[in-house]
Amino acid sequence: MKRFATCLFLLTATAARAQPMDVYGFNPRSLAMGGVQAASAKDFSAVYYNPALLREASFGLGVAYSRPFVGATATAEPQAWQTPVDPQLPPDYLGITTGFAVSVGGVLRGRLTAGVAAYIPKGHVFRSRLFDESTPTFYRYDSPPERLQLVLGLSARPVEWLSLGAGAQVLSNYGGVSTITANLGTTGPGHVVDRTLDSEVTGEASPVVGLAVGPFHGAQVLATWRGEHKTNFTMPIGVNMGTFGSIDVSVEGVMHYSPNTVVLGATTKLLSGRLELAADVDYQQWSKAPPPV
To answer: Is the CA virtual torsion 43, 262, 17, 6 positive or negative?
Structure first.
């Protein structure tokens, strides 16, 4: 009975946290292992989890579907001047995951490997939703999966027991500006003299660095650092009403935030390589998270 309980504990996947690829996973293997990939990613997905683990050529294509189950419960009755507001629940997500890794040949075979991984949402290339601060919302889960995500990485193996990796995660971001000039007039109807709107979708990048040492006696030690990543929605709107003055409005908010993250992990193989045990411990600096509105 003790052996059965121990095996059940080892096979139980815990909930992953932080960035979209951690929350939802990037491929079936990462989901099955509860997100413990910084120590054991073996294919192109290592560009995000730990680029130092890029070793061999690989290719993957999949479909990802997620349906968050979250809710909010009021802990106090609203004041007389307050209107009860239902929480804004995140929608379902559907997207395509793909990527590949290529190992350099010749004298550098097995020493230098490059990889690319991408998440392509089915519904929107970029989606941002901004709610009043009195509305309970879950911005960790709400908008990040509804945007194009790209990760690039490179691994170098100077000696057999040491691998170094570096890369960048790129998420789409949106911003723009709108200006309107109008003559209101005092004796007749006013009219708009000029209107302009300039908006664009850009890419915001953050670094990913990895390290792998070993294996020594079948065990390997690994470390990953992912830099802070923040994408904002910004849309200043200016209305010039001539002699009546002007109105300047700035609509902005945080659509996605991922903190500085340090991951330490270890892995070992048993039963002649047929069983792999891996563990990750990560520190996430959520104390630096900005308010969503």
So the answer is: positive
Select from 166, 281, 161, 178 the least CA-distant residue to 238: 178
User: What are the tokens at 20?
Assistant: 């979209």
Measured CA to CA, the distance from residue 109 to residue 128 in angstroms comes to 43
**What are the backbone angles phi and psi of residue 142, rounded to the nearest 5°?**
-75, -60
The pLDDT tens digits for 63-116 are: 888 887 888 887 888 777 777 777 878 778 888 889 999 988 777 777 899 999
| SS3 assignment for the chain | CHHHHHHHHHHCCCCCCCCHHHHHCCCHHHHHCCCCCCCCCCCCCHHHHCHHHCCCCEEEEEEEEECCCCCCCCCCCCCCCCCCCCCECCCCEEEEEEEEEEECCHHHCCCEEEEEEEEEECCCCECCCCCCCCCCECHHHHCCCCECEEEEEEEEEEECCEEEEEEEEEEEEEEEEEEEEEECCCCCCCEEEEEEEEEEEEEEEEEEEEEEEEEECCEEEEEEEECCEEEEEEEEEEEECHHHCEEEEEEEEEEEEECCEEEEEEEEEECCCCEEEEEEEEEECHHHCCCCC
Residue type, 161: W
Q: How far apart are CA 101 and CA 116, in angstroms?
A: 6
Predicted TM-score (pTM) of the model is: 0.76
Find tokens 């001047």 and name the residue: 81
Whether omega for the bond prior to residue 215 falls within 30 degrees of 0, making it cis, is yes
**242/182 Cα distance (integer angstroms):** 7
